[in-house]
Amino acid sequence: MFFKKTKLALFHAATLGAALSTPVFSQQQPVTIDVNLAKVKAPMQPIWAFFGYDEPNYTYMKDGKKLLTEISQFSKVPVYVRAHSLLVTGDGEAALKWGSTNAYTEDAQGKPVYDWKIVDKIFDTYIERGMKPIAQIGFMPQALSSKPEPYRHHWKPGDNYNDIYLGWAYPPNDYNKWAELVFQWVKHSVARYGKKEVESWYWELWNEPNISYWKGTVDEYIKLYDYTADAVKRALPTAKIGGPEVTGPSWDKSQVFMTKFLDHVTAGKNYVTGKTGTPIDFITYHAKGAPKIVDGHVQMNMGTQLRDLDKGFEIVASYPALKKLPIIIGESDPEGCAACSEDVSPQNAYRNGTMYSSYTAASFARKYELAEARGVNLLGAVSWSFEFEDQAWFRGFRDLATNGVDKPVLNVFRMFGMMEGNRVEVKQDLAYDFKRVRDESVRKEADINGIASKSANSAAVMVWNYHDDNVPVPDATVKVSVKGLPQQKMMLYHYRIDKENSNSYEVWKAMGSPKQPTAEQIRQLEKAGQLELLTSPQWIEPKDGSTTVEMQLPRQGVSFLHFKW
């Protein structure tokens, strides 16, 4: 422990020196955040309790199971999990941006052969932990692909991303066989898990069909959706089916695809029934930011992600028949490629440290406000980040843990897991509101703000100090004023994510960045990856239902005040 603290002290001395010699981005004045627990805004919908990843076979591997267990334990509600490649042909080998289940093959006579063993192994892992699948219907089995060869890719970071889109991305050679596959999968799921359980899942078609994940046309995707929705509903009429999972709607091509799809499901001629419209129970699309390297440091672009979110909300709100449907942001992240590691994509250097955690806190808070402003029903936002089995330590993938050790970003979700009841007022006279972040991102003064909730026996305030530019600056002085508390003695817990707290990455660096940590070092890293208290819990007695907490909050730091009575 002495080694850890000494190394970190030296690091902070160096950081302070750098801060004093680096031009400060609009020197931050002391900030007061006013929280009124008596002013309820809306229920604290757990939109954060959604996760996803490309590689489905990681699900039941050692670190995959460990991480899923941890995620399930910090949430009081069922966590939904979305994974690609659940119908891809193959032997179940796990690889970057690849997975397979061999659910569908054909015999010598061309008759279907269904094999659910690997799909069941994936879903069993979720169900055993109280989690639920967002069951992604895709991609195309080799025997059904209209262009089956070549089929399997062997991509690695640094390779051409476009090389992955092979036979699994093509439309079916037989829509009826495809529909029967979907029917049999849903029917099998009901038999295995029960009708009530499967009714709580979300079935969706494909991923990002407006780009190369789908090698067909918009009309061919719509046709596939009609066949898929019909098959799902025939197997279980109360099942929930949705789409289209397009990339960010701020992009013109995405808007065209999304609106054509929504036009069809509301007023188009159904390819299967010939009637008007197609069943749709929820709507999905993606929203991503766009980091880059500027003057030698990472510069994020939260505004790009929020504009994607907002444009999608605007499109959905323009359809009266769809406006109240649940929306799931199927991938909602600081950028696009989880498997593009920092060593080949230096703009992804934000991923191991506290910049990822502060970005996550600030962006999720704005998702609530954007949806509220558009009057739409945001159910969840999938963080497309999981883990990559047996990779180099802290390689800079967009993941929640590395080799079974939690990274700082996971602790933001632990904080969200303690937020219950109703979302309450945090005064918006601070430097940024959701509109300014959407329109300008965070390029001038820092975004020091918060989100708060209150339940019958607790209240919580999450506070962040975020900036798009990851440059060292002095800590900010922050005063959190909370009113509306019960007039009684209560316990205050103050948790913190920063360079010294809840941060396995800084501890790993202080160890000398070992490529093969010892068993004792791994134990230290696992402990450092957990959410830590900044100070000891303390009893407080609010005066007239009010109290004030003052703190020094480092740039990219996140504090969490938890009041319990």
TrEMBL record:
Is Cytoplasm among the key words of this record?
no
**Residues in domain Glycosyl hydrolases family 39 N-terminal catalytic?**
33-528
Q: Which domain of life is it from?
A: Bacteria
Q: Where is the signal peptide?
A: 1-26
Q: Which UniProt keywords apply?
A: Glycosidase, Hydrolase, Signal
- InterPro entries in the record, alphabetically? GH, GH39_cat, Glyco_hydro_39, Glycosyl_Hydrolase_39
Q: Which family does it belong to?
A: Belongs to the glycosyl hydrolase 39 family.
The name under which this protein is listed is: Beta-xylosidase
Native organism is: Dyadobacter endophyticus
